[in-house]
Each structure stands twice: as C-alpha cells, then as structure tokens.
Amino acid sequence: MSTTDQSRGGSGSSNEFGSQLTAENRSIKVDRETFVYRRFGNTRNSPPMLCLQHFRGNLDFWDPILVDRIAQDREVILFANRGVGASTGVVPDNVEAMTRDVILFVRALGLEQVDVLGFSLGGHIAQELALMQPRMVRRLVLAGTGPQGGSGLHRWSDDVYAHACADEINAETALNIFFSGSEESRAKGMAYLGRTQTRQVGRDEPTDLATRDAQFAALTSWGIPDPSKLNRLAGITQPVFVAIGDNDTMMPVKNSQLLADRLPNAHLRIYPDANHGFLNQYPELFGDHVRAFFNAL
Fold this sequence. Notes:
Rossmann fold, disordered N terminus, globular, about 35% helix, alpha/beta, 9-stranded mixed beta sheet
C-alpha cells in the first residue's frame, strides 16, 4: 500500500478549531485510488470522529452547524468513499466492499481508533466497520439507519424511490426525502439546504448517476429481509447511540428500535416531527447529544 497526503482548496477557518465551510479538501493516495476528505476540529481530545455520509451525498452535505459544533470537542473527519464526489475509482455495489475502503483510509491516516458517525448508508458501513474491525471503533452513532436483514429496508415505497433516485435532486425532492410535511420542518429544511450552499471555495464534486446506481444496489442487498443477520449485532459491543426521526420514510423507525434492542450496549433517541434528515433539522440539539455521548466516561 502506498499513501500520500495532499491539501487543496478551502482557506482559513471561521473559528478556533476550523469549520466545515473552510476546511481544506485533502487527498490521500491508497494504492491506485485517491480518497478526498476534510479534517478539522479540536485535536486535544482523541480519537477523532469519522463521518460516513448518506446515499448520494458528498462532503458538502454535512451540516456545518452540526459538525462544527462537534468539532469544538474533537477532530472531525468528513470522508468521501471510493468514487464518491471527488474521490477516484468505481463505487462498490455492496456495503462490505465500501467498508473495506474505509478501513484502508483509516489505516492510511495512521489512526488506530476512531469514533464513528454513520448516517443512512453510512450507518450500514459503520455497523460493518465495527464488526470487521472491532478495535478500530471506540464509540458509534447510528443515525437514520437500520440493521442488515431488517424489515422494510429492501423495497422503498414508490414515493421514496421516486424522490431518492430521481436523475436530478432539487430542493423539493430533498425536502420530501429528508423533512416532514409540517411547515416548521420544511422551513428548517430550506435553511439546511441554504447552509449546504454556503461554502464557495473548494466544493466537492457532485455525485453522479453511476454512484447512485451502485449505492442503491448496496442498499437493496443490505435490506433483503433475513432475521438471521440480526444475530451479527451481538458482535457490536461498543457503546452505540441510535438516533432517528419519528417519521423516517426511508429507514423505518422500527429498525432503529431493533438496533437498540439487539445491540448489547445501545440507547435510542427519536426526534419529533422529523423525517430522514432529523440531524439537519435539529443540528444543535443532535450535535449536543453526540458530544455528550462521545465525551461520556
């Protein structure tokens, strides 16, 4: 394995510990591919928090209010997996291969241990990471996700599929996927979408349709109903914070309850009047909950 670490784009920082909006885009060479990431935050505490993104998301979709808040306590690493955004290579079509790339990335950075925040598809990868490399993960946040083999994950509703897999994602499409139908939720959704456009220098590359298709194949395979797969959750013995919106139409709430019930050391928090993007609807609140969880003795 050969590795190099380079920085490009971005400039300065908006506060003492840096910001999602100004952190440099860095790249690291792992064998023949280049993985792009951003790294910022308080280096006095360890391990850093590795953030694994949702279906079709790139680095710019991490809410700066959320990740900057967490960065007050610890380093934050936003990661674009193989073929996602500006990272090179072909996006794998299964969660296990995606997870192996995360392992290569963490090792290339020279890190022995990380805390992990996995959102949606990133939550699937986070679970697999904790199973494949149990000593690499100290604590785990599973946001808007579900266990392999859980129910209601294999075939999305027609409405969710139409919006999530549309060739072009616009504001209305994003609101339907990530936010509830209430006026308050939609208003918070529009505010979040505005924040994703705030960064002007060094933006990540948009994800393409090949990324959509490969990631959708991975999600579909992971979601094949199979109760025997739930037994694997016993292997995730780290502390786990499971979080979900109360009206998540993409990852049904019952699967978060299943995670909390089957994981040996987990607790569940459900956020009200929220769809799949609850963490962007409540970025301060969820950020403080994550900080408290990671900082717990």
